[in-house]
Amino acid sequence: MEKNPFSLFDFLGYFIPGAFFMFLCFFLQQQGGILYYLKVKNIQEFNDNVSIIYATFFVIFSYILGHILSFLSTLTIENFTVWMFGFPSKNLLKFEKEKKYFVEKDNCCLTILSYILRLLLFLFLLPISFFSITIGKLFDLNRSVYTKSLDDIYIKLIKSRVYHIFKKMGKKGEVSLEKFDFHKLLIYYSYNTNISHQPKLMNYVALYGFLRVCCLIFNILSLYFLVLIFIDSEEKTISDCIICLVSSILAYITYLGYLKFYRRYSQENLMILLLEDKKQ
Asked: Which positions of the chain have pLDDT values less than 50?
């Protein structure tokens, strides 16, 4: 087994987002907020206060905080994406029809609970959800970045290959790919049968994981300043509005980046199936 305690994902997915979030929290505690550290003398003062103990604590806590943020981004950003647009693997193979964010469950109580949960998530991710249903639909970004399918010839070949893989693994009868989350099994299969593609797949995982966490951080930052706009003094309202708008735009841009690499990762896994198995 290859010993690699720290990978690219540890830095992009955990340490860097955790450190970035810690810096934002530290900056926001100052009287001038983020704008406080745009002055050179304030940056120099911050550098003079850094010690080895502080730096060690910063590195360790950033890594831990990055894990927490990554988990929270999975619960929020990833679930929102699946509920709003579906799984990228199913979109690529034209299994997903037009998604409805609010769906009815078998039980009335479950339906109400689902509606409440999805509404709260929609409001929590307001910068992302708002831009997705406005700019995303107006400029067709949702389809071009995430929900666009493969060409029919590739879809036919990949479906045939998927059925062959399930049959080879002992599954009798045809599998309903529309209802079954087949991509989880195909990730493991393609990863272990095509060793040469593993680095490329892991790079996609690191990139979309990094962008997902950054998206959550910018989303939290925009909500923070949105609250300040309503409760803060009039002197800072203009600057708060500007930072809120910029962070909201950055949240949506990083979200589009997450969608892009999440889709590419799924597409790579599906296209690998068309290659000959390395282990025969």
From this structure: 1-3, 278-280
- Specify the DSSP element, H or E, that contains 110: helix 108-124
Sequence-separated contacts (24+) of 157-163 with Cβ below 8 Å: 157/274, 158/93, 158/270, 158/271, 158/273, 158/274, 159/93, 161/273, 161/274, 162/186, 162/273
pTM above threshold 0.85: yes
Q: Tell me if residue 232 falls in helix, strand or coil.
A: coil
DSSP calls for 148-203:
PPPPHHHHHHHHHHHHHHHHHTT--S---TTTS-THHHHHHHHHHH-GGGHHHHHH
pLDDT one-digit tens code per residue, 224-245: 999 888 886 565 678 788 889 9
Q: Please enumerate in sequence order all residues whose Cβ is within 8 A of that of 179, keeping only pairs 6 or more positions apart, or say none.
A: none
